[in-house]
């Protein structure tokens, strides 16, 4: 196939920090009298962080800062009610998050290349960006369906999400986004994963698998074929087209994974599930969330998704089912004028934040060192403590976590009890639970805890673990990977400094 030129505007060239684009978004917000954000400023923090929301005036406790009507909340059900996408769902299988990513992929291309653009100097000049690539059959069918509906009853003003998509970031700092599209990108990501702590490794590889699966489904749709393989793609699409659509695919997947909000109270839009979702319902079991609710629970909410993360959050976003609004309130404490508005994305440690959002916090109270029971036993044996099979079984039955959190000043109750099991007299093992939680076993005061045999064993175990983590850290070649080990080493050092 003849190699074609790339489109005039490439995937990363549209500047999200273009103030005209942001002004258009703000004008759209202001044009709907039901959207409330009068006490909120949208400000550019810096190009590495992006935009944030700030309080214009002092905010009282429980004051509503933002209200977004339900009709502007983008969920899988919302997308399935758009005729072009319901037609796709009758032919192809996407789970709920994939359907959302498909929406952002196709809408971005449609709005960038098949809708009028206006000059950046506010001179009112309208133009179309030239499309120079070949047209994949699946996307052409999407365009034909949209044109038909536009001729019947629609116009461009119906696509209210145009202003919203215009302000979405074009690049991300996650390891997946940085490396996925590069030559041998998947191999590089797997190489990085192998140097990370096991929980972080599994998270990164899990995201890689999700993106690979979505890309495979995405290209099947583009080719309008139930079969998809590399040779077939190369036959039907030029290399430039493949690069372009892979960039769009990766970008859209990141939009959903970095900006969606999970809310259990979000009601479902009216949708004929039998018609549109029979195939998709099967694919939602991996979410471990009730299938009836998940489609309405994963949402992208314009403006609300500009709230940045902080463990010490001032705000809480939630869906008011009775009123039909997505709201943001100052729940935890009042807010002084000029302060940034934050909400907590979840109890994410720095590795989770880096993999999912592309940043780390200097002091993150959710950082932790996860010690499995098997690792706990191995470390104890390296400290000279013999661990018989009976004690191993008791440790598993007790199911007491060995996790150490950044906020822990001394070893946790559970960790101390696991140490007690290792030190318990053999005569007590048959009734281990009775002795483990008895008053006699818990009679130490704070000073006694610090000098108890259990603590001495734990300190020995943690020193062994610290040395092992330092050795792993010294093998790292990348700063981001070193940071994963540094966070855990810092937690251990902080606890061990007392002993």
Q: Strands of the largest sheet, in order across it?
A: 3-10-9
Total E-strand runs: 13
How much helix, percentage-wise, in residues? 40-55%
Mean pLDDT: 86
Structural class, by secondary structure, is mainly alpha
For the sheet with most strands, the description reads:
3 strands, antiparallel
Assembly state (oligomeric): single chain
Count of domains: 2
Low-confidence sequence ranges: 1-15, 268-296
Radius of gyration: 27 Å
| Overall body shape | globular
In DSSP terms (H or I, runs of 4 or more residues), the helix count works out at 22
Whole-Å distance between the termini? 70 Å
What is the beta-strand fraction? 5-15%
Domain SET: 38-346
Organism: Meloidogyne enterolobii (Root-knot nematode worm)
GO molecular function: protein-lysine N-methyltransferase activity
Protein name: SET domain-containing protein
What do these coordinates show?
- With 499 residues, the chain is mainly alpha-helical.
- The protein folds into 2 domains: 19-31 and 74-300, no CATH class; 368-496, no CATH class.
- The chain is 48% helix and 9% strand.
- It is built from 22 helices and 13 strands.
- The protein has helices at residues 19-31, 76-80, 83-89, 96-113, 137-152, 161-166, 175-179, 185-193, 198-223, 230-236, 239-259, 273-276, 278-281, 291-297, 350-357, 373-382, 389-398, 413-423, 432-436, 446-451, 453-474, 479-496, and strands at residues 40-46, 50-55, 64-69, 117-118, 126-127, 261-262, 298-299, 308-309, 315-320, 325-330, 342-343, 368-369, 404-405.
- The strands form 6 sheets. The protein has a 3-stranded antiparallel beta sheet, with no helix packed on it. A two-stranded antiparallel ribbon has the order 1-2. The chain has a two-stranded antiparallel ribbon with strand order 4-5.
- α3 (83-89) runs antiparallel to α5 and α8 (185-193) packs antiparallel against α9.
- The longest helix is centred in the middle third of the chain and has 26 residues, at 198-223.
């Amino acid at each position: 196939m003849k190699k074609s030129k790339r489109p005039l505007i490439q995937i990363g060239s549209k500047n999200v920090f273009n103030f005209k684009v942001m002004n258009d978004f703000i004008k759209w917000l202001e044009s709907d009298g039901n959207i409330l954000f009068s006490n909120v400023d949208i400000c550019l923090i810096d190009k590495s962080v992006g935009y944030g929301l700030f309080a214009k005036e002092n905010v009282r406790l429980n004051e509503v800062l933002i209200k977004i009507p339900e009709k502007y909340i983008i969920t899988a059900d919302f997308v399935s009610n758009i005729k072009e996408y319901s037609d796709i769902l009758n032919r192809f299988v996407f789970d709920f998050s994939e359907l959302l990513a498909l929406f952002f992929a196709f809408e971005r291309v449609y709005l960038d290349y098949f809708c009028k653009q206006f000059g950046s100097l506010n001179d009112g000049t309208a133009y179309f960006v030239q499309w120079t690539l070949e047209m994949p059959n699946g996307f052409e069918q999407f365009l034909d369906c949209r044109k038909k509906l536009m001729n019947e009853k629609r116009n461009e003003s119906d696509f209210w999400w145009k202003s919203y998509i215009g302000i979405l970031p074009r690049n991300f700092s996650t390891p997946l986004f940085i490396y996925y599209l590069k030559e041998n990108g998947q191999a590089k990501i797997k190489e990085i994963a192998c140097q990370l702590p096991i929980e972080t490794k599994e998270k990164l590889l899990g995201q890689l698998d999700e993106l690979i699966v979505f890309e495979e489904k995405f290209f099947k749709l583009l080719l309008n074929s139930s079969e998809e393989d590399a040779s077939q793609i190369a036959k039907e699409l030029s290399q430039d087209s493949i690069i372009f659509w892979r960039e769009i695919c990766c970008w859209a997947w990141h939009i959903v994974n970095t900006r969606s909000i999970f809310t259990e109270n979000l009601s479902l839009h009216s949708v004929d599930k039998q018609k549109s979702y029979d195939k998709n319902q099967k694919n939602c079991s991996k979410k471990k969330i009730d299938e009836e609710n998940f489609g309405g629970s994963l949402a992208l909410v314009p403006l609300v998704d500009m709230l940045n993360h902080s463990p010490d959050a001032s705000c809480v976003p939630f869906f008011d089912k009775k009123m039909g609004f997505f709201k943001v309130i100052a729940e935890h404490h009042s807010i002084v004028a000029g302060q940034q508005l934050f909400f907590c994305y979840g109890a994410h440690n720095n590795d989770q934040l880096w993999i999912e959002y592309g940043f780390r916090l200097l002091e993150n109270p959710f950082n932790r060192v996860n010690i499995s029971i098997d690792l706990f036993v191995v470390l104890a044996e390296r400290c000279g403590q013999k661990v018989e099979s009976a004690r191993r079984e008791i440790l598993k039955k007790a199911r007491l976590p060995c996790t150490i959190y950044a906020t822990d000043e001394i070893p946790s109750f559970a960790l101390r009890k696991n140490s007690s099991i290792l030190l318990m007299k053999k005569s007590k093992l048959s009734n281990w639970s009775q002795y483990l939680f008895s008053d006699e076993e818990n009679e130490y005061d704070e000073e006694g805890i610090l000098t108890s045999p259990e603590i001495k064993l734990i300190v020995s175990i943690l020193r062994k673990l610290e040395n092992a983590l330092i050795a792993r850290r010294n093998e790292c070649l990348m700063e981001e990977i070193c940071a994963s080990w540094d966070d855990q080493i810092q937690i251990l050092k902080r606890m061990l400094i007392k002993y």
